Amino acid sequence: MLNHVIWFKKNLRVVDNATLLDSKYPKILIYIIEPQLWLQKDMSLRQWEFTLESLKDLRNQLSSINLHLNILSGDALEIFKDIHLKYGIKKVTSEQETGINWTYQRDNRIGQFFKSEKIAWQEIPHIGVIRGKHNRDNWAKNFHKEINKPILTTNDYFKSSKILEIPNFQHPQQFYDSTPCPERQKGGNENATKLLKTFLDFRGENYQIEMSSPISAEQSCSRLSTHFAFGTMSTRVAFHEASHRQKELQGTNKNFVRSINSFLSRLHWRSHFIQKLEDEPSIQDKNFISIYDNLRDEDEIKLKAWIEGRTGIPFIDACMIYLRNHGWINFRMRAMLASFAAYNLWLDWRFYAPHLAALFTDFEPGIHYSQVQMQSGTTGINAIRVYNPYKQSEDQDPKGFFIRKNIPKFQEVPLNLLHYPENITPFEEQLLPNNWIKPMVNVNQTSKFAKDRIFSLRKMTNHKILAKSVYIKHGSRK
Ligand SMILES: Cc1cc2nc3c(=O)[nH]c(=O)nc-3n(C[C@H](O)[C@H](O)[C@H](O)COP(=O)(O)OP(=O)(O)OC[C@H]3O[C@@H](n4cnc5c(N)ncnc54)[C@H](O)[C@@H]3O)c2cc1C
Hints:
Rossmann fold, single chain, binds flavin-adenine dinucleotide, alpha/beta, 3 domains
C-alpha cells in the first residue's frame, strides 16, 4: 500500500498540529535538514541550534504517542524521489509555508514532482493566512473563525507510523551567519509552554507599558516569537489561553486585561503580516512602491559598523550588542535599529535586512520584510517614523543602565555623553576611554536629509495611485 508522508517544516510540535490528523494510508513522518537552506543570507547558526533542540523535543513527544520522526538530510526533492522509489507515496501533508524566496522555489520544484507522480499535496494554512485569490475586506473575519477553532489534541491523531531505514542525519556544515549567541532562547514545546504560562500568570501584567524599554521588555513581553516562528507554540493555543486568562482577570485587574488585549492584537498582526508575503512574495526583495527604487546606498563600511554595534551612538550600539548576544530584542528597539540604518545611515533595506534577520532567532520572513520596509518608509501606506536614538536613549534607558550593561567599557562615561555623544567638549573628551568611538553620523542632519528625500517622493503624483493599490492589496482594515 502507498504511504502518506507527513512533512514537518516549521510546525515542530505535537499539540494542535493538523498535519497529524488521521487518513487511510500508512504514515511516514519526516523532517528534512536542507544544507542549502542554511546558506541563505537570512539564515543563521542560532536559528539552526533552536531548530535542533526543537527537533529533539518533537521526536520525544512523538515517540510518547508511538509515532516516529525520521530526520533526513539533503536536497528535499531528491529525498522525496528516493522515498517514492523505495516506499511509494500517495499523499504528502505539510504546513503551508510562507517563507523566503529559496523555500518558495523549493516548494515549486517539489510541487511539480508531486504533480508528475500524481502525489496529492495537502498544505495546512497558517492561522488566517489565505493562499490564492481572496478579498482583503473579509480577512479579519476569517482569522477569527480560524483562531477560535478547538485545539487539536493527541486523541485526534493517527496512532502509528513507519520507521525508515536511513543513515544518521548530518548537521548543516555552514551558515550564512554564525555569530555566537550566548543568551539565546532554547527550543522545544516545553520551554514555549512555560513562557506562555509565566507570561499569563504574572510576567505580562504590565506588558502594555513595559514593552517599549529593552530593560523591562525582556521580562514583560511574552518572548514567544521564536516559538511561533518554529511552530513550537501554536498561535491558536496562545490565543485560547490568553483569552481564557483575560476572562478570569476581568473586573479584578484592569492593567493585566489591557495587556492581554495588546498581546491578542499582536497575534492578529502576526498573521496579517505573513499574509502580505503570501500575497506578494517579491516584497522580500522589491520595494512595495517602485518610486523608492535606487534611492539609498549599499555602503559596506556603514553596514559593518551598524551590525557590529560600532556606530558611536551608545544606545544604538548597546541595542545591537544585546541583539547579537540574545537573538532577540523588543519591537521598539528593532524599529529604531532599522530606522537608523534606513534614515541616518541611508542604507537600502534590501542590503541590511538579511543581516538583521540572521541575528533574530525568531526570524519570520513575512513579519521581517514587511516591517523593515515599513521602517524604511517604502510601503507608501504607513506613516514615516524616523526614530531619534538620543530621545529613545533618554526615554527607554534614563539611567544608562542598559548601555553600561551591554557595553561595560562605558561604566565610567558620564550619563549625558551616553545619551548625547555629539555634544562632547574637548575637556570631556579627555575623560573618555581610549576605545570610545565618535558618532559616525550627525543624527539631526541625517534625519532631516532623509525626511526631505522621502517626503519629496511622497508628493509625486503617481505616489498616491501606487499607494492606493498597496492599500487595497495589503492594508489593514479597521
Ligand atoms: C524591523 C523589524 C523586524 C522584525 N522582525 C521580526 C521577525 O523576524 N520575527 C518576528 O516574530 N517578529 C519580528 N518583528 C516584530 C516584533 O518586534 C517581534 O515579534 C517581537 O518583538 C517579539 O517579541 P515577543 O515574542 O516577546 O512579542 P510580544 O510583544 O509578546 O508579541 C506576541 C507575538 O505577537 C507577534 N508580534 C508582536 N509584534 C508584532 C508586530 N509588530 N508585527 C507582527 N507580529 C508581531 C509575534 O509573533 C510575537 O511573538 C520585527 C519588528 C521590526 C520593527
